[in-house]
């Protein structure tokens, strides 16, 4: 049985629209693919142990067989995983250097999906920066979906960072990536899941 790992973004959850659309699509078109969609830790210090435990607990994801979709911060984490374990990733409006952006988000937060309260402090920025991959060993292992209207992230950062990857750049849209569900057939083909 094949597995797909889906990593949601900051202040999101497995109940996000794109995660739900991904599960629904596979249930209908490739029911043999299991979707692993963890609720990522809000605390950056707990993210790396969570991801390492996840990989250790799912042998089918390692050995170069990792197939992952990552949205925003999830795209940043997916890049780290592919660089560590091999495999292929589709990144949706990925964060490239979120440690720079999150420096403006220090303080108290509530995850709108889970209602969990947490705080971001300066140490957390270092934990996020530890995932940064300045260069990619195999850019062709990435397909990057970008919309120029992303109000949260500068899509040009991703264009520069993922040179050599399969880039799909659409004019307009927003950070949620409008029309994501229409890309699911090509996403699954890229990941060899359909």
Keywords:
single chain; 194 residues; alpha/beta; Rossmann fold; six-stranded parallel beta sheet; two-stranded antiparallel sheet; 7 helices; 8 strands; 19% strand; globular
Describe the structure.
The chain has 194 residues and is of the alpha/beta class. The protein has a single domain (3-190), classed as Alpha/Beta hydrolase fold, catalytic domain (Rossmann fold, 3-Layer(aba) Sandwich). 35% of the residues lie in helices and 19% in strands. The protein has a 6-stranded parallel beta sheet, sandwiched between helices. A hairpin with a 6-residue loop joins strand 5 (107-110) and strand 6. Helix 2 (44-57) packs parallel to helix 5. The longest helix is centred in the first third of the chain and has 14 residues, at 44-57. The two termini are 12 Å apart. The model has no long low-confidence stretch (mean pLDDT 95).
Task: Draw up the topology in text.
Elements: E1 3-7, H1 17-29, E2 34-36, H2 44-57, E3 67-71, H3 73-85, E4 88-92, H4 98-102, E5 107-110, E6 117-120, H5 122-129, E7 142-147, H6 155-161, E8 166-170, H7 184-190
Parallel strand pairs: 1-2, 1-3, 3-4, 4-7, 7-8
Antiparallel strand pairs: 5-6
Fraction of residues in H or I helices: 25-40%
CATH topology: Rossmann fold
Q: Tell me the number of strands.
A: 8
Binned strand content: 15-25%
Note poorly predicted spans. Answer: none
**Rg measurement, Å:** 16 Å
> Would you state the CATH class?
Alpha Beta
- The number of distinct structural domains comes to 1
Number of helices: 7
Element string (H = helix, E = strand): EHEHEHEHEEHEHEH
> Which whole number gives the mean pLDDT?
95
How are the strands ordered across the major sheet?
Answer: 2-1-3-4-7-8
Protein name: Esterase YqiA
InterPro entries: AB_hydrolase_fold, UPF0227/Esterase_YqiA
Organism: Alteromonas lipolytica
